[in-house]
Amino acid sequence: MAIVPRQHPARPETNVPNRPRSLDPQELGFTRKGPIGWLAPLLLLSTGLRAVLHLFFGAYLDKRELQNALDGDVFDHSTTATGELWLDYVADLGDGFDATYSVAYLLSQEELEVDGERLPRGRLLLMGGDQVYPLASGDGYENRMKGPYRAALPEAPAGAPRPTLFALPGNHDWYDGLTAFLRLFARRKDGHIGGWRTEQRRSYFAVKLPADWWLFAVDEQFGAYIDDPQLLYFEKAAEQVGADDRVIIMTPSPTWVKAKDNPHAYDAVDYFIRTILAPTQAQVRVLVSGDLHHYARFSGEDRELITCGGGGAYTLGTQNLPDHIMVPPKETLTRSRSRSLRYDLRGAFPDAPTSRRMGWGVFHRIPRRNAGFANLLGVIHTLTMLAMAGAASQGGNIQRLFSIPLVLMLVLIMAGTIAFAKPDGHARHWVLGVAHGLTQIALAIGGTWVWLQLPFRDWPWPGPLAVAAFVYGPVIALASSQVVALYLLIATRFDVNVNELFAGQGIEDAKSFLRMHITPDGSLTIHPIGVDRICHDWVADPDGDPHASWLRPASPLTAHRIEPPIRIN
């Protein structure tokens, strides 16, 4: 397998559109999208159906086997004029425009001043997964990822090499079997996204870096396994890795953290290290991943385990992260696993106290950001109330014909709340799901009692139905959403529905990315960059340089170090 040297083709000037003078989609060439309401009923249904389809048909949709017919190049970025290399890492970016573009804008600037130090833009931009939400499609990539990043860096500065972009798919990129992902990142010769050129030909890749460093990006489909063509690709790449080399591994998910609840989650990564890299005697010094939308670093005697999923999606709190983890977990059934080592939590953003404060915002954010979800709760409760009221008062035939049988509504509520708790064999999921269902039923009983005390039920039909739909429905929807919010706040204390607590809020602040620096002497310095507040007010810059961002923040967008630089010698 040949190493493909880095090339710097002439910039396609004719492909660069005129700089927009406004934020109009016709001028930008894409539509700015708002943050996704992750509890929207149709989105929950669609995502659930796709997860089920993947469970039954994932092997048939897996395009990794077919990628064996594509070029199997290893990319060489080891030679630079100064013997050093700056590279950036970002993940989980294709959500709402303001958050995604805030990070893209910072990544695109020629340099960032962070805590008094100037850090130049990375020559490589590594995207660690979930480049689009909620589902992979051509339009989704265009509006939620490609368009914002093209606007942030329309072209490379004159006389400078074009920076290169590599992308690893996450689970949301996988929902169409990688069709749109490969079309955007891997199929075209001399492809580019704004000023970044794309080189990869597969969904996984190996890159030779300066000073005997390597980057291996492994595509494990939903954490299940690593396909044979991919293993063959990395086996050939590893033939060029020396005993004194150091390796950075990119994975789609921080399985070292998820193995706490699922001991088998880390097996594929551990197998990759043992079978592909261990025979070379090279040292795996860094594992980096997105998927969890926060920054967290676990440090051990041999390597750093970093999660950095703050590229644009909703922020996920860190209050439930353990103080330490054992990797691989001792509970795994893999007999040939590596020796289990302890890794301690050294840094997190947002930190645990801030994450807890964010969690309390669920009461006002759930109904405000998820109107469809609240409306669904209102419909379910209204129908349940009508069924209860009909059973209690033995109304007329028309009313009884309209009402959904009470038993059916109660079963629906209990089944929905238990499913929402994601029962996976742990008793706490079942207990919390049942408790949530009983609380919702208690609310329905209380709402029915209030309804029976009011004169509306004695009005001529369909008067009671109209009042129930336009008065009772909105009130009970708000009350029910507050019950959901209270449930999420309590369930999180037991490590249940943590993701839903924050997904339902859609918090856009507290973003993060990594800026890494390999020096000629072989040391690697990782700068974890945080953004406390994203920008919501953008101004077009029609008179800027061709390579300058099309849109700039109306007020300064400030970045800071999450923790001191991490130096690996």
Characterise the protein shown here:
The strands form four sheets. This protein has a ten-stranded mixed β-sheet with strand order 1-2-10-11-12-13-15-14-17-16. Strands 3, 6, 7, 8, 9, 18, 19, 22 and 23 form a nine-stranded mixed β-sheet that branches. Helix content is 37%, strand content 19%. A hairpin with a 5-residue loop joins strand 18 and strand 19. Residues 8-15 have low confidence and may be disordered. It is built from 16 helices and 23 strands. The longest helix has 31 residues, at 463-493. The chain is an alpha/beta fold and 569 residues long. It has helices at residues 25-28, 41-61, 97-108, 138-152, 179-185, 228-238, 255-258, 267-277, 352-359, 362-369, 371-393, 397-402, 406-420, 427-453, 463-493, 498-503, and strands spanning 3-5, 74-76, 85-90, 111-114, 117-120, 124-127, 164-167, 192-193, 196-198, 205-209, 213-217, 246-251, 283-289, 295-299, 304-308, 324-327, 341-349, 511-518, 524-531, 538-540, 551-553, 560-561, 566-568.
Structural class: alpha/beta
How would the global form be characterised? Answer: globular
The total of beta strands comes to 23
Strand order in space, largest sheet: 1-2-10-11-12-13-15-14-17-16
Distance between the termini: 29 Å
Radius of gyration (CA) equals 26 Å
User: What is the percentage of strand-forming residues?
Assistant: 15-25%
Low-pLDDT runs of 5+ residues are 8-15
Q: Helix proportion of residues, in percent?
A: 25-40%
Largest sheet: 10 strands, mixed
Number of helices: 16
What value does the average pLDDT take? Answer: 86
Transmembrane segments: 38-61, 373-392, 398-421, 430-452, 464-490
Organism: Actinoplanes hulinensis
Keywords: Membrane, Transmembrane, Transmembrane helix
Protein name: Metallophosphoesterase
